[in-house]
Specification:
Elements lengths: L1 E3 H8 L3 H10 L5 E2 L5 E4 H8 L19 H76 L9 H14 L5
Protein backbone atom coordinates (compact mmCIF):
# COMPACT_ATOMS: atom_id res chain seq x y z
CA UNK A 1 0.00 0.00 0.00
CA UNK A 2 1.29 3.49 -0.86
CA UNK A 3 0.53 6.77 0.94
CA UNK A 4 1.20 10.46 0.21
CA UNK A 5 3.61 12.75 2.05
CA UNK A 6 1.01 14.14 4.48
CA UNK A 7 -0.34 10.71 5.44
CA UNK A 8 3.24 9.34 5.75
CA UNK A 9 4.05 12.20 8.14
CA UNK A 10 0.97 11.33 10.24
CA UNK A 11 1.86 7.62 10.33
CA UNK A 12 5.46 8.21 11.37
CA UNK A 13 4.80 11.21 13.64
CA UNK A 14 7.48 13.15 11.79
CA UNK A 15 7.35 16.49 10.04
CA UNK A 16 6.90 16.30 6.24
CA UNK A 17 10.17 18.20 5.76
CA UNK A 18 11.95 15.48 7.77
CA UNK A 19 10.60 12.83 5.38
CA UNK A 20 11.70 14.88 2.36
CA UNK A 21 15.22 15.29 3.77
CA UNK A 22 15.42 11.54 4.45
CA UNK A 23 14.44 10.81 0.82
CA UNK A 24 17.00 13.32 -0.50
CA UNK A 25 19.70 11.78 1.74
CA UNK A 26 18.86 8.26 0.46
CA UNK A 27 17.72 6.99 3.89
CA UNK A 28 14.09 6.53 2.80
CA UNK A 29 12.78 5.51 -0.59
CA UNK A 30 9.76 7.00 -2.32
CA UNK A 31 8.31 6.88 -5.82
CA UNK A 32 6.91 9.71 -7.86
CA UNK A 33 3.25 9.46 -8.80
CA UNK A 34 2.07 10.49 -12.31
CA UNK A 35 0.85 13.81 -10.86
CA UNK A 36 4.38 14.53 -9.45
CA UNK A 37 3.67 13.86 -5.77
CA UNK A 38 5.79 11.49 -3.70
CA UNK A 39 4.31 8.17 -2.67
CA UNK A 40 5.70 6.12 0.21
CA UNK A 41 5.34 2.37 0.80
CA UNK A 42 3.96 1.67 4.29
CA UNK A 43 6.49 -1.15 4.79
CA UNK A 44 9.34 1.26 3.88
CA UNK A 45 8.03 3.85 6.38
CA UNK A 46 7.87 1.17 9.07
CA UNK A 47 11.46 0.10 8.30
CA UNK A 48 12.68 3.70 8.54
CA UNK A 49 10.61 5.05 11.48
CA UNK A 50 9.84 1.94 13.51
CA UNK A 51 6.32 1.21 14.70
CA UNK A 52 3.76 3.35 12.89
CA UNK A 53 0.84 5.10 14.48
CA UNK A 54 -2.69 4.60 13.49
CA UNK A 55 -4.24 7.76 11.98
CA UNK A 56 -5.44 10.16 14.70
CA UNK A 57 -3.33 8.49 17.44
CA UNK A 58 -1.17 10.75 19.62
CA UNK A 59 2.43 9.65 19.71
CA UNK A 60 4.35 9.88 22.92
CA UNK A 61 8.00 9.05 22.60
CA UNK A 62 8.66 9.39 26.31
CA UNK A 63 7.69 6.45 28.48
CA UNK A 64 5.35 7.06 31.40
CA UNK A 65 7.37 7.87 34.51
CA UNK A 66 6.13 6.63 37.83
CA UNK A 67 6.67 8.87 40.82
CA UNK A 68 8.71 7.31 43.57
CA UNK A 69 9.92 8.38 46.98
CA UNK A 70 13.15 9.47 45.31
CA UNK A 71 11.21 11.89 43.10
CA UNK A 72 9.40 13.29 46.13
CA UNK A 73 12.67 13.68 48.07
CA UNK A 74 14.30 15.44 45.11
CA UNK A 75 11.35 17.77 44.79
CA UNK A 76 11.49 18.63 48.49
CA UNK A 77 15.25 19.23 48.27
CA UNK A 78 14.76 21.58 45.30
CA UNK A 79 12.01 23.44 47.15
CA UNK A 80 14.30 23.85 50.19
CA UNK A 81 17.13 25.02 47.95
CA UNK A 82 14.87 27.57 46.27
CA UNK A 83 13.71 28.85 49.66
CA UNK A 84 17.36 29.14 50.74
CA UNK A 85 18.10 31.22 47.65
CA UNK A 86 15.11 33.43 48.38
CA UNK A 87 16.37 33.99 51.93
CA UNK A 88 19.81 34.92 50.59
CA UNK A 89 18.18 37.38 48.22
CA UNK A 90 16.26 38.97 51.12
CA UNK A 91 19.48 39.27 53.16
CA UNK A 92 21.39 40.78 50.25
CA UNK A 93 18.59 43.25 49.61
CA UNK A 94 18.83 44.30 53.28
CA UNK A 95 22.59 44.79 52.98
CA UNK A 96 22.05 46.77 49.79
CA UNK A 97 19.50 49.04 51.48
CA UNK A 98 21.85 49.65 54.43
CA UNK A 99 24.73 50.39 52.05
CA UNK A 100 22.58 52.88 50.16
CA UNK A 101 21.66 54.60 53.45
CA UNK A 102 25.34 54.80 54.43
CA UNK A 103 26.19 56.24 51.02
CA UNK A 104 23.48 58.88 51.39
CA UNK A 105 24.77 59.81 54.87
CA UNK A 106 28.33 60.08 53.58
CA UNK A 107 27.20 62.25 50.68
CA UNK A 108 25.37 64.54 53.11
CA UNK A 109 28.48 64.78 55.31
CA UNK A 110 30.63 65.53 52.29
CA UNK A 111 28.19 68.28 51.31
CA UNK A 112 28.30 69.77 54.80
CA UNK A 113 32.09 69.70 54.85
CA UNK A 114 32.23 71.32 51.44
CA UNK A 115 29.85 74.06 52.59
CA UNK A 116 31.90 74.64 55.74
CA UNK A 117 35.16 74.84 53.85
CA UNK A 118 33.68 77.23 51.33
CA UNK A 119 32.24 79.45 54.08
CA UNK A 120 35.50 79.42 56.09
CA UNK A 121 37.55 80.42 53.09
CA UNK A 122 35.22 83.29 52.31
CA UNK A 123 35.26 84.43 55.96
CA UNK A 124 39.07 84.23 56.06
CA UNK A 125 39.33 86.33 52.93
CA UNK A 126 36.87 88.88 54.32
CA UNK A 127 38.81 89.11 57.60
CA UNK A 128 42.11 89.60 55.77
CA UNK A 129 40.53 92.34 53.59
CA UNK A 130 39.23 94.08 56.74
CA UNK A 131 42.69 94.03 58.34
CA UNK A 132 44.36 95.35 55.22
CA UNK A 133 41.79 98.14 54.93
CA UNK A 134 42.29 99.07 58.60
CA UNK A 135 46.05 99.15 58.13
CA UNK A 136 45.71 101.37 55.06
CA UNK A 137 43.45 103.76 56.98
CA UNK A 138 45.91 103.87 59.87
CA UNK A 139 48.84 104.47 57.54
CA UNK A 140 46.96 107.23 55.72
CA UNK A 141 45.90 108.91 58.97
CA UNK A 142 49.40 108.97 60.53
CA UNK A 143 51.08 111.52 58.19
CA UNK A 144 47.97 113.69 58.20
CA UNK A 145 48.27 114.02 62.00
CA UNK A 146 51.31 116.27 61.64
CA UNK A 147 53.81 113.89 63.11
CA UNK A 148 57.27 114.08 61.61
CA UNK A 149 59.66 111.27 60.80
CA UNK A 150 58.74 107.75 59.96
CA UNK A 151 55.14 107.07 60.67
CA UNK A 152 54.41 104.00 62.70
CA UNK A 153 51.54 101.92 61.47
CA UNK A 154 49.06 99.60 63.01
CA UNK A 155 48.18 98.87 66.58
CA UNK A 156 51.63 99.61 67.99
CA UNK A 157 51.66 103.08 66.42
CA UNK A 158 48.36 103.96 68.00
CA UNK A 159 49.45 102.65 71.39
CA UNK A 160 52.80 104.44 71.40
CA UNK A 161 51.32 107.67 70.05
CA UNK A 162 48.71 107.82 72.76
CA UNK A 163 51.31 107.08 75.50
CA UNK A 164 53.80 109.66 74.27
CA UNK A 165 51.23 112.34 73.88
CA UNK A 166 49.97 111.60 77.37
CA UNK A 167 53.51 111.95 78.75
CA UNK A 168 54.12 115.13 76.85
CA UNK A 169 56.87 113.74 74.69
CA UNK A 170 56.94 114.24 70.98
CA UNK A 171 56.28 111.07 69.06
CA UNK A 172 58.74 110.16 66.37
Amino acid sequence: MQVGLTEAAELTGKNPSTLTRAVNAGKLSAVSAPDGTRQFMVAELERWAGKLRTPGEERTDAPEVQRTELHDALEEARAAQIEGYREQIRLLEGVLDETRKDRDRWQEQAGQITRLLTDQRAETERERDRREAAERLTAAAAPAGGQGGAARSGLFARLFRSRRSAEGRPSA
